[in-house]
Amino acid sequence: METRRTTTVVLYPGIGVGHLSPMLELSRGILRHGIDVAVVLVESPSGDSGFAAAVARARSTHTSVSFHVLPTSPPSPPAAAPSSDDAEDDHPIVGLLRYLRATNAPLRDLLSSLSRPAHALALVLDMFCAHALDVASELAIPAYFLSATGAAALAVFLAVPGLSARVGAAFRDLGDDVVLPFAGVPPLKVSQLPPWLADDGALFQASLRLAARVPEARGILVNSFLALEPRTVQALRDGLCVHDRPTPPVYCVGPLVSPGAVAAAREDDAHECLRWMDAQPDRSVVFLCFGSMGAFPKHQLAEIADGLERSGHRFLWVVRSPRSGDGRGASPVMNPADAPLDELLPAGFMERTKDRGLAVKSWAPQVEVLRHRAAGAFVTHCGWNSTLEGVAAGLPMLCWPLYAEQGLNKVFIVEEMRLGVEMVKDGKGFVRAEEVKEKLRWVMGESGGARELRERAAAARDKAAEAVADGGSSQAAFVEFVKDLEGFVLWGILAFEGRLLRPFSIVVH
Q1: Is the Cα dihedral 104, 105, 106, 110 positive or negative?
Q2: Interatomic CA distance for residues 499 and 490, integer angstroms
Q3: Beta bridge partners of residue 178, listed in sequence order
Q4: What are the Cα distances from residue 356, in Å, to 214, 313, 376?
Q5: Which residues does 284 contact at the CB level (< 8 Å), separation at least 6?
Q6: Calpha distance 497→117 (Å, rounded)
Q7: Three-class SS state of 345
Q8: DSSP letter (8 states) at residue 189
Q9: Residues 6+ away with beta carbon under 8 Å from 476
Q10: CA distances (Å), 173 to each of 88, 182, 291, 367, in order?
Q11: How far is CA 358 from the centre of its chain?
């Protein structure tokens, strides 16, 4: 009797809404190929309520996916010689990586419980979860990475270890006059790198270790599409970004963006901002939103409000309470105070702009807003999920990066993709009201440059749709990924039936 093969792909996004969202979109494609999907979640050590809310939404909207939550207090790693991962550093990401590494033991237990005779597992990891490769190797499970960034940021990340070894010094010591050569991307100055890549501290060293582990995977899934980043994708596939070993197969399967909610059956079911958008003219509204962790101090909020008011254009603005940190929106640490809008914005602003603007607190249905006929431009923090949502909606972008790799994304959006322009900061790191006013007037205006930007944005939208359609480049890449996965599963099933010596133990790189 023929053995019935069943497969479950286990998605492990680590921590953070920006890492969970593309994994959930990936699950849709996997399910369409008749493969089961499980998502492994780790509760944030900081008790991030935003992540908890995102998980609750995911459970309600992805009912065909099984969700598993690892213990909230993972056991400490076994006593051993001090690891370089444990270098003293108070950066929260170093602690997060240590926390995720400590979940290897409960992850191993979970995967072992899911594994059954004639039932194969595969693992798709977020880059932050690279230590889970050890679990995959121990259990002989094929492991892939999903890059939560685009191809360009991935290329830089993979190339940093080799470039650092050749330079022999911290990048920041080179000065900003030096242009760093990365294959497949525009030349980069040190100031355009994420701060921890420019420095040589504990987070930089941890990043080198993560980058060095990526080639151990069976393949890399990239949330992008070939027509958006052709030069970078070619460099990755040609092995030009990893200096000392072969690069695994690269599958561009994006854009992995939500299709958006189905239109509400009753008007009162829709979010207030969508009802407001319905009353606005086509392509007339500037949407301002800065991601799940993007927030500003009151001084910067006042500058934005002043610029919006003076621009004369319609706007929809998602406002979050200020965070602790350096005051420029660069810190992902939540301020416990959650002030109402009338305390955050200048006195009288909401009343003076009520006929052409709307400010909402904390959250808006971004995909639906961006795709609304009234949306005309997108002021964004350049997080990669938001970037792809803007591309898929065909909107020109005003780029205002805040933290992480968003500065890199800004360079790629402005200089390589040519789908946006920069919101220029002053010497203290703030964007002033005059800059807000002038950039909004420019992007919504009729100058030749603005019209060409809108045309490029519309063309990118069409190419994004083509990539995921039947016969498109991303669909073809997804099929290749599934073929590789199923090929491994076939070997495993044959092994289980006794036709090979060791079941589920063949991993080909």
Answers
A1: positive
A2: 11
A3: none
A4: 48, 7, 14
A5: 313, 314, 374, 376, 444
A6: 9
A7: coil
A8: E
A9: none
A10: 22, 18, 32, 41
A11: 27
H or E element: which one contains 397?
strand 397-399
Residue with tokens 């939540």: 334
How, if at all, do strands 66-69 and 119-126 pair?
unpaired
User: What is the rounded distance in angstroms from the CA atom of residue 405 to the CA atom of residue 409?
Assistant: 6
Pair 306, 418: CB distance under 8 Å: no
How far, CA to CA in Å, does 259 sit from each of 54, 209, 324, 326? Answer: 16, 35, 34, 36
- Whole-angstrom Cα distance, residue 28 to residue 178? 44
DSSP letter at 269 equals: G
Calpha distance 152→468 (Å, rounded): 20
Give the Cα separation of 463 and 460 in Å (integer): 5
Alpha-carbon distance of 250 to 242, in angstroms, equals 13
**Which H or E run contains 245?**
none
Length of the chain counted residue by residue: 509
CB proximity list for 80: less than 8 A, separation 6 or greater? none
Cβ burial 453-483 (10 Å sphere, 16+ → b, else e): bbebbeebbebbebbbeeebbbbbbbeebbe
Largest CA distance in the chain: 77
Give strand pairing partners of 145.
125, 220
pLDDT tens over the chain, length 509 residues: 344 568 899 999 988 777 888 999 999 999 999 999 999 998 877 666 666 777 788 888 889 999 998 886 544 444 443 444 444 456 788 888 999 999 999 999 999 998 876 678 999 999 999 999 999 999 999 999 999 899 999 999 999 999 999 988 889 998 888 899 999 999 899 989 988 888 888 999 999 999 999 999 999 999 999 999 999 999 999 999 998 899 999 999 999 998 876 444 334 557 899 999 999 999 999 999 998 788 899 999 999 999 999 999 999 999 998 865 544 444 444 443 468 898 999 999 999 999 999 999 988 999 999 999 999 999 999 999 999 999 999 999 999 999 889 999 999 999 999 999 999 999 999 999 999 999 999 999 999 999 999 999 999 999 999 999 999 999 999 999 999 998 876 555 444 444 333 333 333 33
